[in-house]
Design brief:
31% of the residues are buried. With 243 residues, this protein is α/β, with parallel strands linked by helices. Helix 2 runs parallel beside helix 4 and helix 3 crosses helix 4. The strands form two sheets. The chain has a seven-stranded mixed sheet. The protein has a domain of 166 residues: TIM Barrel. The structure holds iron/sulfur cluster.
């Protein structure tokens, strides 16, 4: 799919300004409004408003642009550069979610935790709406927790707003054909809140799906997970049927 359904109207995140301190010299002096620091925009590579192939249930899937980890064999090398994609605010992205039809949002990459400061406000909006947040990361949970413990508040906030984390880099020599959604066996499932704790230990029983969308103009888009041989065979078949 070459075009993303980005909304035309820009919306701003409404934030409650913190009470500014009164002047010590003149406690009755008018307060100077202080604006909270603007959160950076999210660099978006791709959006699929509804999918059943990127986590539990029907989900809004967001691929972010930019990843410095660069695992050999990564399926999305076009999302490595941080120069591509489209910048969007948390409110703009949130407005794209079909709230009544999805149970949550999945963050994929690119590397979501390299945009933690931009994504944390978005994931807070998602959780405040009663939806779940699932995120993939090429870092390990241990690395992210160490970052948060060292004072990286953006990482701490994004972890706090994540219900289900799938961590670890993709290792192409160790493909996982048993569990859904993950690429390699080193990658871990971590339920960081109780929202998906009922699924702990039952991941293998969940279906792994590949979704193919054919737009009216014939453009084909694929999401979900399959190994390269399966994808090569699939695209060869699609090319053959188009001829
Ligand atoms: S972390 Fe994910 S997006 Fe980044 S290189 Fe590895 S597989 Fe690709």
């Amino acid at each position: 799919m070459t075009e993303l359904p980005f909304p035309r109207v820009r919306q701003e995140i409404s934030r409650q300004a913190a009470d500014p301190p009164r002047s010590a010299a003149d406690p009755l002096a008018p307060e100077t409004p202080q604006q909270p620091p603007e959160s950076p925009p999210i660099r978006v590579a791709r959006v699929v408003p509804e999918t059943v192939a990127e986590g539990p249930g029907n989900r809004f899937a967001l691929w972010v642009q930019g990843c410095t980890i660069r695992c050999p064999g990564c399926f999305n090398p076009q999302y490595w550069t941080s120069r591509g994609g489209t910048e969007m605010s948390a409110a703009e992205l949130f407005a794209m979610i079909p709230e009544r039809r999805v149970e949550g949002v999945t963050l994929l990459g690119g590397e979501p935790f390299e945009q933690a400061a931009a994504l944390a406000p978005f994931t807070r909006l998602v959780q405040d709406a009663g939806l779940t947040v699932m995120s993939f990361t090429g870092y390990t949970l241990e690395q992210l927790e160490a970052r948060a413990a060292a004072g990286d508040t953006a990482t701490e906030q994004l972890l706090a707003a994540t219900d289900l984390l799938i961590d670890g880099p993709f290792i192409r020599e160790d493909l996982d054909h048993e569990r859904p959604w993950v690429g390699s066996r080193n990658q871990g499932f971590h339920t960081l809140t109780p929202r998906y704790s009922h699924l702990q230990g039952a991941w293998q029983q969940l279906p792994d799906r590949l979704e193919i969308t054919v737009a009216a103009d014939g453009t084909t888009a694929v999401n979900g997970w399959a190994d390269s041989e399966t994808l090569d065979a699939l695209f060869a078949e699609l090319r053959r049927t188009k001829q």
